[in-house]
Amino acid sequence: MKPTVYIETTIPSFYHTKRTDSESAAMHEWTSEWWDTQKDDFHLFTSAAVLLEIESGESSLVTDRLKMLKPIPLLQITDEALHIAGIYIERFLMPADEIGDALHLALASCHKCDILLTWNCRHLANYNKIQHIRRLNVALGIHIPELITPLELVSNE
To answer: What's the predicted TM-score (pTM) here?
Structure first.
C-alpha cells in the first residue's frame, strides 16, 4: 500500500521558484527530483488551504503552482480539523494563521496522512516542534504524521 502524503504550500513553491540563492536552489533541486521521479510511489493529497495560500502569493508563478496541484485530491477541511488547528494555535505550538501551518498539521493529522511534506523547518519539520506535536497529538488521541522534507524522501531512494 502506498503511503499517503499531504503536500503543503512550500512544495509547489520550491518546485516553481525564481530564487537563486544556494539554499533555495538546493531545495528546488530536491523537490524537483522527488516530484519528478518518486511522487507516483505515494498517494498525494493537499487542501483548499494550500490553494488559498498559493493564490495569495505575489509571484508570477502562482498559475504554475496551482496547475501542479490540480490533479491532487483535496482533503476536506472538517470541523474537527479546524478545532485541532485552534488548539495548536491556543497552545502556541503554531502561529495564529487561519489557513497556515496549524491547519496543514491538523488536516494531515485528522485525515491520518502518513507524511506531511514541507520545507517549513521553522514550524513543522523541526525536531524541537515535532516533540511538542507528538505529545499534544497523543494527548488529543489523534494521528501523528511524519513531518519531513523532500530531501528525506530523496535520500531514502
So the answer is: 0.93
